[in-house]
Design a protein that fits this description.
Residues 566-577 have a biased composition (Gly residues). With 887 residues, the chain is an alpha+beta fold. It has 4 domains: 2-327, no CATH class; 328-400 and 423-445, no CATH class; 466-565, Sandwich (Immunoglobulin-like); 614-886, Sandwich (Immunoglobulin-like), CATH 2.60.40.420. It has 21 helices and 27 strands. The strands form 6 sheets. It has a 6-stranded mixed sheet with strand order 18-17-20-25-22-23. Strands 19-27-26-21-24 form a 5-stranded mixed sheet. A hairpin with a 2-residue loop joins strand 1 (466-474) and strand 2 (477-479).
C-alpha cells in the first residue's frame, strides 16, 4: 500500500521535472524561460517532493502516522499543485490576481502541513529522533512568507530598491528556508543511512543547535531586507553558513569514515557542497554590495547554479535512494532497482558538477551554452532511470512470488566474499571528453573571448616592473581609454563596471575580464607588453558605440604602433554586430525570390481599441532567428517574439501598465513615446531575468513608436526591437478596413546573425521593409472592396530612413500626421464644414524616423494597387506591397 502511494504521488514530481526539462530544452522559444524553469523545478518538483517526503520522515522518526492519513496528505498536495499552477499561469499571462490566489493556496497548504506535523508531535514524546521534524515545521512556516514575497514581486508597480530588497528576501526564504531547512532536517537521519554508518554521537546536539542558528539567520536576513540594511542582511546569510557548518559536521565525519560510493549519496553530498559555496558567496556579496540593486544582481547570478547544483541534485539523489526501498518487492527487487540507478552514475555526476563549475566560471558565453545542455542531459537521465527502475523492480517482485530459487552452496560462499562492483570508467571518461570538447569548440569559435590571441610580449625582454592601472567602464566608454607603458613592463588592469549594464574588456592578446555585472571589479593580468594592444567591450554593439581601449608601448619598435594603425590587432575582434563578416546574409538575399516555407506574413489588420481605461500588458524580450527577406535570416531581438512587437491601442486618457520581462541574453530596455514620464527609472536597462514596469497615461492622440533604448540604440532598433502604440483621436470615425504598416530597415550581418552595426553607422541598409519582411504584401496583398473606406496607419520605426508613403492609383482624402489632421478629418482642412472647399487631396504621407500618422482613401474600381515608400530606392529595396481591391 505504501509503495503504491509513493509511486503515485512521486509521479507528480517526475511530471514537474519533465516540464522543467522541456522548457530548458526549448528555452529560446519560451517566454520567461529562466523564471519558468526555476519555478517548475523549485515550486513544482522540489516543493511537491518536500511535502511528500517530509511527511514520510516525520512518520518514520516519530513512529506514528500523520493525522488524517493519506487522504489529508493528498488534499494538501492537490492544493499546493493547484496553487503552483496558478502562480505559473498568472506570471506568464501577467494576471496578478491569479498569482496572489496561487501564492495563497501554496502558503495555506504549507501551513496546513506544518500544523499537522505539530499535532503529530504531541503524541510522539520521548522518541529519540522525533525532534528532527521541527525542521519540517520551520520550513512549512517559511513557505507562506516566501510565497507572499513572490506575489509582491509580481506586482507591476514594484520597482527600484524595494523590488531588489523583496527579491533578496524571497530567494533567501524560499531556497534557504523552505528548501534548505527541509533538506538539513532530512539529512540528519538520511545521510547515515545512505553511507550505512551509525548515527554520529554529536548528531542530535549539532542538529538542535543548527536549527536554532539557521532560524535566527533567516530572521536576521529578513530584518535586514525589511529595514533596508545591507550589513544586517549580509550578517544573516553569514550566520546561516555558521549554522550549516555546525549541523553538517557529523555528516562530514561519517563521510570521512566511509566515503559515499553510490550515486544517491554522492549526488546528495555534492548538492550540500553547492549549498555551502553559494551561501558563502552570497554572504560576501551582500556584505560588500554598494546598493540593493547590486545585491539583487549578485543573488540572481547564482540562482540557476544553486537550483540545479543543490536542489536538483539533492532531490534526484534522495529519490534514487528512497525509491527502490519504498517500492519494496524483496531484496532482489531493491538491488535490481538500485543497479539501474547506478548506470552511468560517474558520468552523470561529472557532467552536472563539472558543467555547473564551468557555467559559473568567467568563461565565454559559448562555453556556458554548451555545458548547460550537457548538464540538462545528465539531469534528465536520472528521472528516466527512475521510471526504468520501477519497471525492473516490479518485474523482479513478480518473479520472486513464484517461490524460492535454489542456489548452490558454493555460489553463496562466493557471493559473501564478493566486493561491491566497481563502476565502469568508460562513461565517466566519455563525459570528461564531452566537457573538454565543448570547451575546445567554444574557444575555437571565439578565441579572444576565451583569453587567447597573439602574445602581448612580442619578444620584448621583461623589465621586472609591474604597472597597475584602474579602468572604469561607464557610459559606453572606458576611463581612461588608453594607457602607456614601457616595452617589457608587466601590465595589470583593474577593471570596474560602474555602469548599470553588463560590460567586459577584451584585448587582442586574448586577455579578458569576462562579463562583469554592474558593480563588479576584475583584475586582468595582461602580462609582459612589447607591442601595442587594442581593447574593446565585446557586448553586442558596445564597441561600435566607442567602448575602446588602447595600450601604447614606448620603445617597442614597429610593434609599438597602435594595433588599429597597422599593428597585429584584429580589426573586428570577434565583436558581435561588426562589419567584415565572412559571409553576409545580404549575399544570399533575393528580393524576387520566394519566402521559406515557415514564413508567415505579419498580420497588418488592426482591432479596435479594447474596452476599459486601464490596459495591462506584458512584453517578453525574446530572441528568435527567422527569415527577414527571401534567402536572408537574422537573429532578432524582439518584444513578444514578433517584429514589429505587439501593437498597443487605446484612447486619450487611458492608462497603460506595461511589464517588460527580459528573457534575452543581454540587457534591454523600452521607451514609449506615447508616455510623457521621466525616463530615469522606466527606461533603464534591465539584465536577463529581470523585469520592470512602465506606467503611462496617454494624454495625446497619434501613432507612437516604442523601442529599446539601450546603447547602441540604433543596433537594438535595427535588430527588431520596436513597435507601435495607437492612441485614437477623439471622434475617430469607423472605417471598413484598418491596417498598420511599420517601416524599418535591415542591416544584415552574417547569415543567422544579428544586424551589422557598421552598416547601421554608415546608413547603408540592405533592405527597407514593412512589418519586418521585405515585399511580404506583394505575395499576400491586403484585401479591400470597391467603395470601402480604408485607413492605413503608417509608422516609421527607422532607425535611420524616412519614408514618403504612397498608394499607386489612389488619392488620400484624409491625412493625419503627428497628432493633427493635415487633410480631412472632423473639422479638419478640406473636410465638410472645415477650411477649404473639400476638393483637396494628397498623394503621400511624409514621415521622418519615429513619426507616424494615417491616411484614408476608397477605391472606385477593382484592381491591384501597389503601396510603396516613394523614396524609390527604398521601394526597390523591399518597402512595397499591394492592396487587392475586389468588386
Amino acid at each position: 500500500m505504501r509503495g503504491r502511494w509513493h509511486l503515485r504521488v512521486n509521479a507528480i514530481v517526475v511530471a514537474w521535472l519533465v516540464a522543467a526539462a522541456v522548457v530548458a530544452a526549448g528555452h529560446r522559444a519560451v517566454p520567461q524561460a529562466t523564471w519558468l524553469m526555476l519555478h517548475l523545478l523549485l515550486l513544482g518538483a522540489a516543493s511537491t517532493a518536500i511535502l511528500i517526503w517530509s511527511a514520510h520522515f516525520a512518520e518514520a522518526v516519530r513512529r506514528r502516522p500523520l493525522p488524517g492519513g493519506h487522504r489529508a496528505q493528498a488534499a494538501r498536495l492537490a492544493l499546493h499543485n493547484a496553487g503552483a499552477l496558478a502562480v505559473v499561469a498568472g506570471l506568464l499571462t501577467g494576471t496578478w490576481p491569479a498569482v496572489v490566489g496561487g501564492a495563497t493556496a501554496v502558503g495555506t497548504a504549507a501551513l496546513w502541513h506544518a500544523g499537522t506535523l505539530v499535532a503529530q508531535g504531541r503524541g510522539a514524546l520521548g522518541v529519540r529522533l522525533g525532534w528532527t521534524a521541527r525542521y519540517f515545521v520551520a520550513s512549512g512556516v517559511a513557505l507562506p512568507v516566501g510565497a507572499g514575497l513572490g506575489a509582491l514581486l509580481a506586482r507591476p508597480d514594484l520597482t527600484g530598491e524595494l523590488a531588489s530588497r523583496a527579491y533578496v528576501a524571497h530567494v533567501t526564504v524560499m531556497l534557504l528556508g523552505w528548501v534548505g531547512l527541509t533538506v538539513v532536517g532530512a539529512l540528519v537521519t538520511l545521510w547515515p543511512t545512505m553511507l550505512r554508518v551509525q548515527l554520529h554521537p554529536d548528531a542530535a546536539r549539532a542538529g538542535t543547535h543548527g536549527l536554532v542558528v539557521l532560524v535566527l539567520a533567516l530572521t536576521t536576513t529578513l530584518a535586514g531586507t525589511a529595514s533596508g540594511s545591507l550589513p544586517v542582511a549580509g550578517a544573516g546569510i553569514a550566520l546561516y553558513l555558521v549554522g550549516l557548518v555546525r549541523v553538517a559536521w557529523p555528516w562530514a565525519a561519517g563521510a570521512r569514515d566511509r566515503p559515499p560510493t553510490t550515486f544517491a549519496a554522492q549526488s546528495v553530498g555534492l548538492g550540500v557542497v553547492w549549498l555551502g559555496l553559494a551561501v558563502a558567496t552570497w554572504s560576501v556579496g551582500l556584505a560588500t554590495a554598494p546598493s540593493w540593486d547590486v545585491a539583487h544582481a549578485r543573488f540572481a547570478g547564482l540562482i540557476a547554479p544553486l537550483a540545479v547544483g543543490f536542489t536538483a541534485q539533492v532531490l534526484l539523489g534522495a529519490l534514487a535512494h528512497l525509491g527502490p526501498m519504498i517500492l519494496g518487492g524483496g531484496p532482489s527487487a531493491v538491488r535490481a532497482a538500485m543497479a539501474v540507478l547506478e548506470r552511468g552514475a560517474g558520468a552523470r555526476l561529472l557532467l552536472v558538477n563539472g558543467g555547473l563549475a564551468l557555467f559559473v566560471a568567467p568563461v565565454p558565453s559559448l562555453v556556458r551554452v554548451g555545458t548547460s545542455m550537457l548538464v540538462l542531459g545528465a539531469l534528465v537521465a536520472t528521472p528516466v532511470l527512475l521510471v526504468r527502475a520501477v519497471v525492473v523492480s516490479r518485474r523482479r517482485a513478480r518473479a520472486a512470488q513464484g517461490g524460492p530459487t535454489l542456489v548452490p552452496v558454493a555460489d553463496l560462499a562466493t557471493a559473501r566474499r564478493r566486493p561491491e562492483p566497481r563502476r565502469p570508467m568508460g562513461p565517466t571518461v566519455a563525459a570528461a571528453a564531452a566537457l573538454a570538447l565543448v570547451v575546445a569548440g567554444a574557444v575555437a569559435a571565439d578565441p579572444a573571448a576565451a583569453g587567447l590571441g597573439t602574445s602581448s610580449a612580442a619578444g620584448a625582454a621583461a623589465t621586472g616592473r609591474v604597472v597597475e592601472v584602474e579602468v572604469e567602464a561607464r557610459d559606453m566608454r572606458f576611463e581612461p581609454s588608453s594607457v602607456t607603458v614601457d616595452a617589457g613592463d608587466s601590465l595589470v588592469l583593474v577593471v570596474t563596471n560602474v555602469d548599470t549594464a553588463v560590460h567586459d574588456l577584451v584585448l587582442d592578446s586574448g586577455a579578458s575580464s569576462g562579463r562583469m555585472a554592474p558593480g563588479a571589479t576584475v583584475r586582468v593580468e595582461v602580462g609582459v607588453v612589447g607591442r601595442a594592444l587594442d581593447g574593446w567591450c565585446s557586448v553586442a554593439g558596445h564597441r561600435q558605440m566607442g567602448m575602446l581601449f588602447d595600450v601604447v608601448v614606448r620603445g617597442g619598435g614597429d610593434g609599438a604602433a597602435s594595433a588599429s594603425e597597422g599593428g597585429t590587432g584584429d580589426a573586428d575582434g570577434g565583436a558581435a554586430g561588426s562589419a567584415g563578416v565572412a559571409s553576409s546574409a545580404a549575399d544570399a538575399m533575393d528580393l524576387r525570390g520566394d519566402p521559406a516555407d515557415d514564413v508567415r506574413p505579419y498580420d497588418p489588420a488592426l482591432a479596435q481599441a479594447p474596452a476599459g481605461t486601464t490596459h495591462r500588458v506584458t512584453l517578453d524580450v525574446t530572441e528568435v532567428e527567422r527569415e527577414v527577406a527571401p534567402g536572408a535570416r537574422q537573429a532578432l531581438w524582439t518584444f513578444g517574439g514578433t517584429t514589429p512587437g505587439p501593437t498597443l491601442r487605446g484612447k486619450v486618457g487611458d492608462t497603460f501598465v506595461v511589464t517588460l520581462r527580459n528573457d534575452g541574453s543581454l540587457g534591454h530596455s523600452i521607451d514609449f513615446h506615447a508616455g510623457a514620464v521621466a525616463p530615469d527609472e522606466v527606461t533603464r536597462t534591465i539584465e536577463p531575468g529581470e523585469s520592470l514596469t512602465y506606467t503611462f497615461t496617454a494624454t495625446r492622440a497619434g501613432i507612437w513608436t516604442y523601442h529599446c533604448s539601450t546603447s547602441p540604440m540604433s543596433l537594438h532598433i535595427a535588430n527588431g526591437m520596436f513597435g507601435a502604440v495607437i492612441i485614437d483621436p477623439p471622434d475617430l470615425p469607423r472605417v471598413d478596413r484598418e491596417y498598420l504598416l511599420v517601416q524599418s530597415e535591415l542591416y544584415l550581418g552574417e547569415q543567422g546573425g544579428i544586424a551589422d552595426a557598421t552598416k547601421i553607422g554608415a546608413e547603408r541598409p540592405d533592405a527597407v521593409v514593412f512589418n519586418g519582411y521585405a515585399n511580404q504584401y506583394d505575395r499576400t496583398p491586403l484585401p479591400a472592396r470597391v467603395g470601402e473606406r480604408v485607413r492605413l496607419w503608417v509608422l516609421d520605426a527607422g532607425p535611420n530612413r524616412p519614408t514618403s508613403f504612397h498608394v499607386v492609383g489612389g488619392q488620400f482624402d484624409t491625412v493625419f500626421a503627428e497628432g493633427a489632421y493635415l487633410l480631412g478629418g472632423p473639422g479638419g482642412p478640406g473636410a465638410a464644414g472645415g477650411p477649404g472647399d473639400g476638393t483637396g487631396g494628397a498623394q503621400s504621407l511624409a514621415l521622418a524616423p519615429a513619426q507616424g500618422g494615417f491616411v484614408e482613401l476608397s477605391f472606385s474600381e477593382p484592381g491591384t494597387y501597389p503601396f510603396v515608400s516613394h523614396l524609390v530606392v527604398d521601394a526597390e529595396r523591399g518597402a512595397r506591397g499591394t492592396l487587392a481591391v475586389r468588386p
